[in-house]
Amino acid sequence: MKLNSKFKALLTGVTLSLGLAACGGSAQEAADKPAAAADTVAAIKEKGVIRIGVFGDKPPFGYVDAEGKNQGFDVEIAKEMAKDLLGSPDKVEFVLTEAANRVEYIRSGKVDVLLANFTQTPERAEAVDFAEPYMKVALGVVSPKNQPITDVAQLKDQTLLVNKGTTADAFFTKNHPEVKLLKFDQNTETFDALKDGRGVALSHDNALLWAWAKENPDFEVAIGNIGPAESIAPAVKKGDQALLDWVNSEIAAMKKDGRLKTAYEKTLMPVYGDKVKPEELLAE
Questions:
Q1: Res. 277 pLDDT band, cuts 50 70 90
Q2: SS3 of 172, please?
Q3: Does the pTM exceed 0.85?
Q4: Do residues 162 and 223 share a domain?
Q5: Is the same domain home to 225 and 144?
Q6: How many Å apart are CA 41 and CA 36, to the nearest integer?
Q7: Which of 147, 278, 171, 152 shows the shortest CA–CA distance to 220?
Q8: Mean pLDDT throughout 163-173?
Q9: Environment class of residue 235 by beta-carbon count within 10 Å: exposed (0-12), middle (13-18) or buried (19+)?
Q10: Is residue 123 part of a domain?
Q11: Strands of 159-163's sheet, edge to edge?
Q12: Phi, psi (5° rounding) for residue 100?
């Protein structure tokens, strides 16, 4: 049986579509996937705004001041990114996040880049792509000055306060099951619980604890360094190589030209003073 040319063309198209579908997608999807990844930076430029996830309650890294403005170390880095990519530090949309939902905000596309004091871990690296780090930290433990916790052994069968989804949560869950953990979503809740005596101590990044203890002199960071040294880095959606490359180049530039140190001097040095040196926290 002879087929006319129009039917042949139709049959060929159907066969091709079925073949692509069997491989997991349509012809349009196959064409769009690499383009979507390659056009991320261009899409941000066309939109004229970059959405960056930061904390709203974690001074001095990310917080909202009395006038409703975003402030902090991560915020300064975000403004530099917006200025370099879009020509103005004002072209950043700050998306407030909490520790427990940071990965979801990246995976769902709610943010383009995450800068919410995000510690780089192997588990998180399976879900997101990390850029080069800009800070280095370890865990610490803060407790009342009149009842200081100076050794992890003192926490046995005691209640330790942590934030859900943080490295402190993961570290104590894995390594110290003898410690009772009371977990909160927001930093303000966790620190208020410490003030209220709902736990004997609180564990978080040491950089944050030093800053908090300075503002709350009835407490001290009697354990300043536990667990492995870790890095804090920006993160983007898994597989978004174009945006990852751009963020990497931006962090490298900020380190080289001194803008990262300038951000430190503006936001962190007034908090730490001489107690902490920039090189102790800034990644090389």
A1: confident
A2: helix
A3: no
A4: yes
A5: yes
A6: 10
A7: 147
A8: 94
A9: buried
A10: yes
A11: 180-184, 159-163, 201-205, 135-144, 219-232
A12: -75, -20
